[in-house]
Design goal:
98% of the residues lie in helices and 0% in strands. It is built from one helix and no strands. The longest helix is centred in the middle third of the chain and has 116 residues. It is rod-shaped and about 155 Å long.
């Protein structure tokens, strides 16, 4: 029986070495997988950042364009309102001039009549 144990013991040592080798290979495979996964994650993060930057730039560009359009519309509306106000003011001035002109003629007639009648 002693001989069988010795033979079995040698076989156990060989099996242990194989098991350690298998474990070492699995660790290397896992390390490679982890490394690949980290690289993939880093690439995905870089891609996401680049996409986010493009999205932000696009949003800023759109906001700037909308602001320019709003400023143009506001300026056009302000110019339109100013023109309307100037036209109304000019019409009022003309109406007042006509009223005053009519009253001046009447006032001159009245003064002339009083001077003549004395």
């Amino acid at each position: 029986m002693g001989a069988q144990k010795a033979a079995g013991h040698g076989s156990d040592h060989h099996t242990s070495d194989n098991l350690l080798q298998v474990i070492a290979e699995k660790e290397k495979e896992l390390d490679a997988l982890v490394s690949a996964a980290r690289s993939e994650v880093a690439a995905l993060v870089a891609q996401a950042r680049a996409e986010a930057e493009r999205t932000i730039k696009s949003a800023r560009d759109q906001a700037a364009q909308l602001a320019r359009e709003y400023e143009q519309r506001t300026a056009a509306e302000a110019a339109r309102i100013q023109q309307e106000a100037e036209a109304r003011a000019a019409a009022e001035v003309d109406a007042l001039r006509r009223q005053v002109a009519g009253k001046i003629d009447a006032a001159v007639r009245l003064v002339v009549e009083r001077v003549i009648k004395g």
